[in-house]
Amino acid sequence: MPLYNNSFSTEFSDFLLNCFVRSPNWQCWLSLPLSLLFLLAMGANVTLVITIWLEASLHEPMYYLLSLLSLLDIVLCLTVIPKVLAIFWFDLRPISFSACFLQMFIMNNFMSMESCTFLVMAYDRYVAICKPLRYPSIITDQFVAKAVVFILTRNTLLTAPIPILSAQLHYCEKNVIENCLCANLSVSKLSCDNVALNRIYQLIVAWALLGSDLTLIFISYAFILRAVLGLKTKGAAAKALSTCGSHFILILFFSTILLVFVLTHVVKKKVSPDIPILLNVLHHVIPAALNPIVYGVRTQEIKQGIWKLLKRSG
């Protein structure tokens, strides 16, 4: 694929991912835990999806949303982690232009879809706790279908311009990405064009999507907490908090790791350049591994569904 500069031309067929080249020892000690986390994430999410699909008692809106979250995690893991492990084990650093921009699209799109799914799940818990009598009429299969369409449409339309803008840039001098994955800012900085529009758009979209989702999620849980504290029935508050606890734990982890990632970029002169890269990689596998485990451990119906499937297969 030829790419041209105004003064000279250079042909690039792909990018090269410089993954922890400044800290080569990291590749050794990261490869085993990263591969184990990847296997755990894939196995746990696939198990959860199959359990919800095959177990009729789990064919309810809340579990449909859980299976959507697992599908998003599976795609995110498959998009990032196998390539990182291939670099660690076989030094397969090249990635084609089309594969790079496709990876960029999936990472931006599916991460924002995961955030939006958490928002819908927070609304589900809000209705369940604050409006229990109306829950069956509000949270229906039709509601879930509409929510899925909204999640797909909103996030695809708003994140698609990010890789499109990057793909339109001219890469005429360097093709070495100082990252383990095709993050937009890491790729666009290689361009000899003005990338201000690209960066401003990503910043606006990130705050508009993730920022608004997290704000609405915490507002929902503020209402839930107020409603729970007002419950008079003995044990009702503890049961309600237990129902929402696993969801809120995962949202906190999701938002916290994003916050740490942003802060390391802000103070990047005081930390190793590899730290943000490490956090970016881990953010694509640790939440994916935790989500199904936390829900599986804390949700009795899912545990029972998994046991039923194991008994059938046995």
From TrEMBL:
TM ranges: 32-54, 66-89, 95-111, 204-228, 248-267
GO terms, biological process: cellular response to lipid
Pfam families, per database record: 7tm_4
GO MF entry, a single one: olfactory receptor activity
Cellular component GO terms, alphabetical: plasma membrane
Membrane topology (UniProt): Multi-pass membrane protein
Domain (G-protein coupled receptors family 1 profile) ranges: 44-295
Main location: membrane
Annotated localization: Membrane
Superkingdom: Eukaryota
UniProt keyword terms in alphabetical order: G-protein coupled receptor, Membrane, Olfaction, Receptor, Sensory transduction, Transducer, Transmembrane, Transmembrane helix
PANTHER family the record matches: OLFACTORY RECEPTOR 56B1-RELATED, OLFACTORY RECEPTOR FAMILY 56 SUBFAMILY A MEMBER 9
Protein name: Olfactory receptor 56A3-like
Native source species: Chrysochloris asiatica
Gene: LOC102831649
